[in-house]
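Input/output pair, single chain:
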Amino acid sequence: MTADLFKLGVIEALDALRASRFGCADYTRALLARIYALEPQVQAFAWLDHERAMAEAEAKDREAQTGKSVGPLHGLPVAVKDIIRTRGIPTAMGSPIYDDYVPDYSARVVEKLETAGAWVLGKSVTTEFAYMTPGKTRNPWNRAHTPGGSSMGSAAAVAAGFVPAAVGTQTNGSVIRPAAFCGVVGFKPSLHLIPFAGAHIFSPTLDHMGVFTRSVADAARFAAYLSEEPGRIAPKIRMGESPPRLAAVRSPVWDRASPAQQARFLADVAALRAGGAQVTDIELPAAFGEGHRTLRTIMLFEAAWELSETQKRHRDRMSDFLNRSLDEGRAVADADYQAALEMRTRLIEELETFLKKFDAIVTPPAPGEAPADLSITGDPAFCTLWSLTGVPAITIPTGLGENGLPLGLQIVGRSGDENRVLAVAAWCEGKLPFTRP
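Output:
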């Protein structure tokens, strides 16, 4: 049994720990054994300390044995993206500039998970400053393929069975895309619902916190206790009384999807319709054709501001790609930035109106399977509109492509309507079963 503990999801692990079927130390040993077997190939972690991990696990066991009340995530080991500060643990931001940086405080999200009883097993690899230049992580399904980015280590760690849950961030497509590429669930709640304070800021208008798990129910259970607003996300999904009303949206970037992803999406929509969902094939208002340019304008203008001092001091230690992007952002006129913010406000309002007729949108999460190229992290275009508008989005794996790598489905809902999005995603998950190796 101990050898298989790495297969447990969040809810299964928490239930077993609470029932004392095994201890946190037993669970952690099983996870570390799995990590030692596969980490040399996957390389999901930027930092991991075996002795510290076992000490944390044993401390959790002692806490449970005292009979005192423990938190709802007590004993759960998780991975945290390495742009999120962790007190006493290195936080390198995916850049050699921060090689020796050990924060003396933790980000708010880390405080939240620790208060709930979870603990940081390791720091997961990020792209450089959570932008586009890849880190060392490989896709667990095929090590010649990217795991996506920027939360590459978090997605890969969950997919490989290293941890049952991980924390990541998304500015454009950095939770949904790697989750889709790695065949796990990626959940990005509404903007600011999971606090971003203490994480490296790239674009304050667009930066979201999100989570990775291996089921929708696990995503709800984990994210519920990271929310800045207690009770906003229910830890147990409440399913609707009737099948959902869905808008099947191909989006303005449908032509970027591979034939396999297009076919997967159409097959998923057909299966949901056959399962009882009311599915309407419909496109977004024409104004959303401006969404991708709008996000890029806002993102690079703000990134150039946020990283201006770092770039001045350390330009030679930043990638050419990041330097060029920041230079592009610095060249954006203030008037163009303000116009982009105004367009964002308009799109938020139009999306709210669009969604009044539906419980959720279903749309592809990525252009297709993870590219067989470790120098890139893939195209985030299918995530852009939902990051720009700050609405909740979740992706579930639904099948495999021609190369045997995962393909998925993204579910998007109204701002602040996380519980409905999770319920719809759980319903879709039940109609589109996915088997992991």
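The domain at 245-283+357-431 is CATH 3.40.190 (D-Maltodextrin-Binding Protein; domain 2). The chain has a mean pLDDT of 97.
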